[in-house]
Structures are given as structure tokens and as C-alpha cells.
Write a structure and sequence with these properties.
With 773 residues, the chain is of the alpha+beta class. Helix content is 32%, strand content 26%. Strands 1, 8, 9, 10, 11, 13, 14, 15, 16 and 19 form a 10-stranded antiparallel β-sheet that branches. Strands 7-6-12-18-17 form a 5-stranded antiparallel β-sheet, with no helix packed on it. It binds beta-D-glucopyranose.
């Protein structure tokens, strides 16, 4: 746990330079715009500890899996979003000395991530070994208006000398992934060119043959005027640069602007990449840095209007929630249904930038409520487009009749995890994908989605589950053997309650969806069953038979659902009995010891209770929470938010707040000691859920928004906007009660504490808190 980020409502601030924290800060201060993103590496050379990271969405490489004993069904490759050309480089040399904060004396240093306006700022004073001092001020951003472009303003001032400064503004494409399995490099050069202030480098990925053209243009100003200097292009293999020298007097500021653009063969023909790149450079450089930044601030204002959560009375909590929302909005904009959300977004290499169940279980609810409907829909369509591959995956494993098993880790729809024993058996991801369809339709009312895309996916998933169970003669029930639930600290277990429960729900929901589609679009339905060769009567009969006869483990004495068969054979020692030195278990204990222990990595039974909350009364939820919470170590970032939501629902307000804090500042305070690898982007959606679905108790029931709010004792109030079916509602909760302000031109009925309230267009209503008995 660290505590070096200054509390501020709109900014992430680091003061003073501690090289030991640099990799953490590189993650925290990351910037992105959905199309590309990068860690907060320095523009000038830095020879200290750093993790260089520049990423372009969708550009991946199938790195060969490392595995000792190959078995049928193992994925061939582990896909990774590639570390791409570094376009921020601005090398500074003064009298043959490099400006390098690892070597210089750093006199002062400040880094700010301005979340309100969407840019990264850095200022420092450094003393070179010769005693020459310079002051540097930088600003940079990835534009959310011109998504292929980024811009840098780099201002340098000699403080105690007059002299020449040699500057090389470069694009370096000779990049390796730190996590490359066989130390290979994944990029080759296609072309490089440069003229005057402009340079262009086109690279191609090995095997996948994506091409990316990265271009840049520099402009230099002194005393507010462009200066005339000799700009020399340098062209080397996988490297292009513009080199120039300026003469500056003591106290005179030189400002370098660098406009950079990444265009890819995903969006353009390969033979036009350089010319498109030039056009985009002309456009953004024509606007200039200040105008681009003004547009950036205006575009962020719109994002904040949709998604901000305002917390009064607790600056650390305010900073935490905004940081989470900011990073989510930087990662995924929902404009391209070929893209998804990697667990680390554009902030690190871990998890390969691939798609996990995190998207459906955690991110979809955030985008549903805070972005235009198309954004969440595109996340669903991403999986729809990969249905063929999911069927292929299932077929490879021995399933038939169009059964679909979505991968646990994927880029293209093919399974590409690299940890068979844990990841593969997590077939629960198939259920999360079905659940997201249900959630989307429930939230938006867009039933056409089922007609056009959803039902086809659901039938594939239901077919999978119906084949994955088997009849147990001993139990006279259906069982589900050899699975891993969300709790990865137990692998290959039998009858994981969450997975079995979810499987039954999927088959049940598919039957409902069939009826909906049949009744609304009979023709489409007929076409679909023809396409899928679907025998409705026979297949749904079998599904119903399984649902009615499924074994769902429970403990009658404790009246709880059992995480899996045999769970109670474990020694049940609460987490609070664990020595602090043993945590996190996955870094301190052998895998053998973890597997035998009772410790739960992340919400498992409680994840099921979260999804299907409506089915359980409050006493049942309490019993399960009371049993499982003390055994949960929350060593997945996806865990505390689910506990925060459930604790809120059963009135355990202190617990709810404790878990909220843990998720909201997980990265800012480096809670799990792993922020240096990158941020926990997907769990950031869970932080939003903790406030909106937890504290405010928002859920949808019978096509209606519902709130059951409480105010954490530490706060004065919290408020947020929710977009729901053509209405935009501001929700504010304070000590007195809840205010609903309908900001749209449509009426809406909302339940508060289970009572319906009509909120007319542009009308605000207030409902007091229920008195607790
Ligand atoms: C969690 C998984 C999750 C993955 C990616 C793992 O640590 O246990 O549930 O999908 O991280 O976020």
C-alpha cells in the first residue's frame, strides 16, 4: 500500500521524484482515447527503471504459448496487444550531456493528470552533471476528438546558462514486449520517410500482418514565434526522427510541439496508410496544440456530464471514483464493435490486452448507464461476431450440434489463455455472456437485439450447457464436473454452485427469449431455427428436464449454498486469522497450499447472488454473506465491488463502505502491490457499480428503475447521472433522502424504496430516507 498521490478532486498529483515509484506512476498517469493509449513514460531519455508502453487498439500478435506437456485442446497461442511504436520521444542533449532524470539531479518534480480536461502535465527542474540547470514543462494528451492523434507540448528553459540545445524528436519502432514468451520482437519495418519537420514510419506485425503508420510533425517556438532552424530527418531501420538545434539564452523558453498520428490497416488500405497519416497530421497540426486541447476539454466535459459521480465531504473518495471513471472512458469509447476492454486497458502488458468475462460481468453495466446505448450494444455485438469461433472452440473440445463455448481469454474469438489448469475450466464465462444480453435488454428495452443477434448466441450457449452436464446415477440428478468457478483458488472442482446455477439460468432465459422472438418476429425466428437446425420442442424439453433436475450443492445445517462439493471438508479459518506476512497468498503460498485452503480469491457464490439477487430473500443473502465474506481474500480486483453491493443490499453499510474504499483507490494507493504492471481497468467499472448499484441500490425490475439508497456515514452526499431509456436522471443522495431530477423531456416512473414515483420532464422530486427500525 502506498500513499504518495496528493488528494484532489479533479487531478492526480505526484510531487517530488522517487525513482522507486516511477513504474507505478507510469501506470497511474496513463492516457488514452479508445484508439490508442500509453503509459506515462517521459518524453526525454530515461535510463532508470521504466516500463515503456504504447498501444494501438486491436493490433495484436499470437505469441506462441509456453507449455511443458502439450494436450489436445490447448490453445496454440497467447494473443497480446503489442507494445507499439513509441511516438513521444524527445531527446534533449546539451553540450554532449543527455537530459536524463536517472542521471541528473532532480531539483523539483511534479506530475499531474488533469482528469477534467484529459491531459497529462509534468514539470521539473534538473541539474545536469556539468551543473547546467534546466526547467521543463510538458503537456500531452491522446485526443478524444481526433482519435488517431496525440499531441505534446514540451517547453525547456536554461536556468543558469546560454547555449545550444540539441533536440531529436523521434518515433522508435524497434519495440519489444516485455512479456514476449520467446524474447522475439513482433514488428518489421515496411517503410520510413522524412522531410523537414515530418517523419513517417510504417511497421507490420509478424504473422498477423497488421500495418501501422506512425507519423509526427514538430514545430518550435521561442518568445511565442516559430523559429527557423534546420530540421534534419534521421531514418534508420524501425526508427525515424527530426533532429534540430536551438540556441537559447538563460531564462528563455523554447517550446517544442510534437503532433503524432497512428493509422492502421484495420481502418485503411495498406497502400494508403502513409498518405492518410499525412492528411491527419496536416489536419491536427493545422488546428494547433491549444485548439486541440480546448476541443479535448470540451469533449471531456460531455463525457463527465454523462458519467461523473460527485461525492461531497470526502476528497479521497471523490478522487478515487473520478480516477476510475476517467480511466474507463479513456480505454473504451464503444465506436468500433471489433474492439473490447483488456483488464489493463492501455496501461500495461499483463493479460495481453485480451477480452475476459470482466467485460460482460463488470463493464457492461457501467457503459449501459453512462454512455449512449450503442456503446454497450457494440460490446455485445463483439461476441456475436465471434459466435462461429465459439462453436469451433466447443467442437474442438468434443461438443456438437452448434454448442458454443466462448473463450476465457480472446482477441479474435479463439481461445488463447496460457494457463490450462486455471483458466480453461472457467466455463462460467459463457454464462456471463448470456447474462450481459439479458442485462442489456432489461436495461434498454431493446428486444430487437434478441431478434437480430442475441437469441442466436443464447441458443449456442444453452446447447453447450445441456451437453456439459451429465446424469449422476448416484445422485439421480444432473451434475457439472470439472469446472473452475470465479474463485481461481480452487480448480477442477465438481458442482460449483455458481456455474451450475448460471447454466440453468442460461437455459431458462434462452427459453424465454425464444418465446419473445417467436411472438414478435415469427419470420426471423423461423429463419433462425432453419439456420441453426434447431429442434425447439426436443431441445427445450431437454433443457427444462436439466433445469428441474440439476444438483445445486447446499448445506442444510447452515442453510447456505455450497461453493462446490466438498467445500466444508476444508479447515475453515477466517481470513482475519491469517498473518499479514502471508498475504497476498498467491505470492506467499505454494499453489498446493492455496488449493487445499478455504480461502476464496474472489466472489463466487456471492457473484451468483449478485446476478440473481431477486431470487433470494434477505435472510438467505445474509447467511451466505456471513459465511463467505470472512473466507474471502479479495485477491482479484473484481471481488470487493460485489461484496460492497451485497453488503449494501443487506444493510451492512460499514462493510459496504470498507469494500468501496478498497476498490476505488486500489490502484491509486497500490493496494495489491501490482499497479506498476498496469491499472485494473475492468474492475474500475466495479467501483462505479459499488456506488450506483451498491450505495444507491439501483437496479431494474419490471422495466423500471429502482433505488434503495443509503448515505455512507463519511460523506455529505453523492450524486450521479443515469441514462435510462431516453431519459437522463440526476440522482442525489444526502442525509435527508434522495433527490431525482429528470433532466430530459420525457416522463419517467421510478421506484424509490419500492414505491413508484412519477418524475415529469424537467421535474425534481425528493423522497426522505426510510426510518430504520
Ligand atoms: C481474475 C479473473 C479475471 C482476470 C482478468 C483474474 O485475476 O481471477 O476473474 O477475469 O483476472 O481480470
Amino acid at each position: 500500500m502506498k500513499n504518495y498521490i496528493k488528494a484532489d478532486e479533479w487531478n492526480i498529483i505526484e510531487e517530488g521524484f522517487d525513482p522507486r515509484l516511477n513504474k507505478i506512476s507510469e501506470s497511474l498517469f496513463s492516457i488514452g482515447n479508445g484508439h490508442m493509449g500509453q503509459r506515462a513514460n517521459f518524453e526525454e531519455t530515461y535510463t532508470g527503471e521504466t516500463l515503456q508502453g504504447n498501444y494501438v487498439a486491436g493490433i495484436y500478435y499470437p505469441d506462441k504459448t509456453r507449455v511443458g506437456w502439450w494436450k489436445n485442446g490447448y490453445p496454440e497461442y497467447f494473443a497480446k496487444i503489442l507494445n507499439a511504436a513509441n511516438w513521444i520521444g524527445i531527446d534533449i542533449t546539451i553540450d554532449n550531456e543527455k537530459l536524463d532524470l536517472h542521471i541528473c539531479k532532480v531539483i523539483d518534480f511534479k506530475r499531474i493528470l488533469n482528469m477534467r480536461e484529459g491531459y497529462l502535465q509534468r514539470s521539473f527542474t534538473a541539474e545536469l552533471p556539468s551543473g547546467k540547470k534546466v526547467a521543463v514543462n510538458t503537456k500531452r494528451f491522446c485526443s478524444i476528438v481526433d482519435e488517431e492523434a496525440g499531441a505534446i507540448q514540451y517547453a525547456i528553459t536554461p536556468l543558469n546558462f546560454d547555449g545550444e540545445i540539441n533536440i531529436t524528436a523521434y518515433i522508435d519502432g524497434d519495440i519489444a514486449n516485455q512479456d514476449s514468451n520467446y524474447d522475439e520482437k513482433f514488428w518489421d519495418q515496411v517503410s520510413n520517410e522524412g522531410k523537414g519537420q515530418d517523419v513517417y514510419l510504417t511497421l507490420i506485425t509478424k504473422k498477423t500482418t497488421f500495418e501501422v503508420c506512425t507519423g509526427s510533425r514538430v514545430a518550435v517556438l521561442q518568445d511565442g514565434k516559430a523559429i527557423d532552424t534546420d530540421f534534419k530527418p534521421i531514418l534508420k531501420d524501425k526508427y525515424v526522427a527530426t533532429a534540430f538545434t536551438v540556441t537559447a539564452k538563460q531564462g528563455q523558453e523554447t517550446v517544442i510541439y510534437k503532433y503524432a498520428v497512428n493509422v492502421t490497416s484495420q481502418n485503411y488500405n495498406k497502400d494508403e496508410l502513409t498518405s492518410v497519416c499525412k492528411k491527419v497530421i496536416d489536419r491536427v497540426a493545422g488546428k494547433g496544440f491549444d485548439k486541440m486541447l480546448r476541443e479535448q476539454a470540451a469533449a471531456w466535459q460531455i463525457k463527465w456530464n454523462e458519467s461523473d459521480i460527485i461525492i461531497e465531504g470526502d476528497v479521497a473518495a471523490q478522487q478515487g471514483i473520478r480516477f476510475n471513471i476517467f480511466q474507463l472512458c479513456q480505454t473504451y469509447t464503444g465506436k468500433d464493435d471489433r474492439l473490447n476492454i483488456g483488464p489493463k486497458g492501455f496501461t500495461g502488458e499483463k493479460y495481453g490486452g485480451s477480452t475476459y468475462w470482466d467485460t460482460e460481468a463488470y463493464c457492461v453495466p457501467f457503459y449501459l448507464a453512462t454512455a449512449p446505448q450503442q456503446v454497450a450494444k457494440n460490446l455485445l455485438i463483439y461476441r456475436y461476431r465471434q459466435l462461429d469461433k465459439a462453436i469451433e472452440n466447443a467442437t474442438k473440445l468434443g461438443f456438437n450440434n452448434g454448442a458454443a463455448l466462448y473463450p476465457m481469454v480472446t482477441m479474435t474469438g479463439e481461445e488463447c489463455h496460457n494457463e490450462w489448469e486455471i483458466t480453461f475450466e472457467e466455463i462460467h464465462r459463457n454464462g456471463a455472456i448470456a447474462y450481459a444480453i439479458f442485462n442489456y435488454v432489461r436495461y434498454t428495452g431493446d428486444k430487437d437485439y434478441l431478434n437480430d443477434y442475441g437469441l442466436e448466441v443464447l441458443i449456442g450457449i444453452a446447447r453447450f450447457w445441456s451437453q456439459r452436464v451429465n446424469w449422476s446415477d448416484a445422485k439421480k440428478q444432473f451434475v457439472m464436473l470439472g469446472v473452475t468457478g470465479p474463485n481461481e483458488y480452487e480448480n477442477n472442482v465438481n458442482n460449483n454452485w455458481y456455474t451450475s446455477m448460471l447454466a440453468c439460468w442460461c437455459m431458462q432465459y434462452t427459453i424465454e427469449a425464444i418465446n419473445l422472438v417467436k411472438n414478435s418476429e415469427a419470420l426471423k425466428y423461423d429463419q433462425l431455427i432453419g439456420k441453426l437446425n434447431f429442434n425447439e420442442a426436443k431441445e427445450t424439453e431437454q433443457w427444462k428436464h436439466i433445469i428441474e433436475n440439476m444438483y445445486l450443492p447446499k448445506d442444510n445445517a447452515r442453510q447456505i449454498f455450497l461453493q462446490q462439493d466438498g467445500f466444508l471438508d476444508k479447515e475453515l479459518i477466517p481470513v482475519k486469522g491469517l498473518p499479514a506476512a502471508d498475504r497476498p497468498l498467491n505470492q506467499k503460498w505454494s499453489w498446493d497450499r492455496i488449493l487445499r485452503s478455504c480461502y476464496i480469491k474472489q466472489a463466487d457464490v456471492l457473484q451468483g447472488i449478485y446476478f440473481f439477487n431477486e431470487q433470494f430473500d434477505s435472510d438467505t443473502i445474509k447467511r451466505n454473506y456471513n459465511f463467505y465474506e470472512p473466507l474471502t481474500v479479495h485477491e482479484s480486483s473484481l471481488s470487493p465491488c460485489v461484496h460492497a453491493i451485497i453488503a449494501s443490499r443487506i444493510g451492512y453499510e460499514e462493510d459496504a463502505y470498507k469494500f468501496y474504499l478498497r476498490t476505488s483507490r486500489l490502484d491509486l494507493d497500490d493496494y495489491n502491490n501490482d499497479t506498476e504492471d498496469g491499472l485494473h481497468i475492468t474492475s474500475m467499472a466495479g467501483t462505479w457499480m459499488s456506488v450506483v448499484e451498491g450505495f444507491a441500490g439501483m437496479h431494474i425490475k419490471d422495466d423500471r428503475l429502482q433505488f434503495n439508497p443509503f448515505l455512507p456515514g463519511e460523506w455529505k452526499s453523492y450524486s450521479f447521472n443515469i441514462g435510462y431509456r431516453n431519459t437522463l436522471v440526476n440522482v442525489k443522495v444526502n442525509a435527508g433522502g434522495i433527490y431525482l431530477n429528470n433532466l430530459s423531456a420525457n416522463n419517467i416512473t421510478i421506484n424509490i424504496f419500492n414505491e413508484p414515483h412519477n418524475v415529469g420532464a424537467n421535474i425534481k422530486i425528493f423522497v426522505g430516507h426510510k426510518v430504520k427500525v
